[in-house]
Task: structure prediction
Amino acid sequence: MTKYITLLLLLFVFSCKDNPKSEEARTPISESETVVEEDDLSAISTKDFREFKVLDSKVITKTQIWSAINPQMEDFTEADYNRLKPLILEANIPTLQEYVVDGKFSYGELTKFYLYRIRKFDRENDLSLNSVISINPDVIKEAKILDGDTSNNHPIYGMPILLKDNINAANMITTAGATALLNNKTDDAFLTRQLKSKGALILGKANLSEWAYFFCEDCPSGYSAIGGQTLNPYGRRIIDTGGSSSGSGVSVSANFCVAAIGSETSGSILSPASSNSVVGLKPTIGLVSRTGVVPISSTLDTAGPITRTVEDNAILLDAIFGTDASDTKTIDALLDNGFYYENLKAATVKGKRFGTPKRLLEDTLYVKALDVLKQQGAVIVEIEEEQIGLPNFLRLLNLDMKKDLPAYMEGYANKDIKMRTIEDFMTFNLKDSLTSMPYGQNLFKGIAEDKGDAEFLARIQDTLKTNGRAYFDKPMQAQNLDGFLSINNYHAGFAAVAEYPALTVPMGYQDNGRPMGLTFISSRLRERQLLEWAYVYEQASKARIAPKNYN
Result:
């Protein structure tokens, strides 16, 4: 294996696909040869995403999804939907809460509005996005209960939230997009309990790249055997959704929910959030519990919020963080509720110093975003990136998933499912390969064949964390920087192994309509600062435009 590969990208390429091995990609800056380290697992693809082996699910149908809910929706009409649409579309959480207080609608009506909208747009029609896998059959009843008890004053109270379908939720199935987990009925994950304790409503489950994009080597992002192919509302079958939290990003962008939870190993929140013009936060690893979440890597995995606004993102993060004794990476952050969202409107970037990699300055949207920050008083410092690689990144994922998936199956999956190991799931998939693995299962094969031991894994972990932190810390210390500015998920791999938080916020659209995000990265447990900086930028730029066919 050579250390470097040279990739040539042409300007006519519609989009950049995340590498399913690492979920990190670097969108090219110009028509030039881009040299990247092979071990960094970055990649550029010229694949035309209008060509899919599978579009609609072969496993679930619209009728199946809605059978339990339709009888409960009979009193909600098209007239109700049209009356509420101007109040709810693109509204943030504080506005929605004000409308409830003012009596313009109830939590029950808000819930039915989103359900009606998902049913109207999401599957088996000319605008279908395939972003939702399942609906909580009890959500309408739960919303009515909340309407009768408003004692909980957290702003997430009564807000319908979608969970990525690798996050356990009681009375629902958690599939990770895989047919092998079609009967995986579980208890709540820790973060699901956190949401419910604040009064959030679990609306349903969002589609994802199957097994969080660590399954099939050459499959498009947003595909799962259960959910079919998730499509981007800014360009169905043309613009990539990003992965692996594809359904979470798409459903938020298309106003199918107030907000959603995604998960990231390396780029899986940042990629779909930026690709669908929404706000995505990958927290410091350990701030948000991973217990009850189908894993790739206990070293790198984290869940995080995907929202339409920065303020909503802060509210949702506030609702899910917390110390979990069952999570080996848990952080006792000692933060009170409200820490992330209170006083956000007083945020400033005046005098804050942000490092900007010189190679990104050929991107006109990025340069425009920097100008916005300068106008708000930020100091932009051009930097040369550290020449540091991420050796054995793929081996880390292989060796972690080889042990972490059996641990999830043993501790948090349905006990009736007997499969435990990667080999067990590979054997299951071969029984009906056209349904279970139309794009193959080469990444699972790589996991099964990787013979690295615990000592080797520990060395990889140490090296990657050291390299990841050095990549950011060296320029930040040398230039006295507060943060690092990137695009989309270009630096997701380094943030992942450093275990540092990263937040992406809409910064505009390419000529072909593809959304792009400005990404803020800083050191451990600086989520509040990231949210403040992103809020200032968001309010000054007003870059997000809702997808026009879904108004």
Observations:
- The two ends are 49 Å apart (CA to CA).
- Residues 1-50 have pLDDT under 50 and may be disordered.
- The chain has one domain: 62-390+462-550.
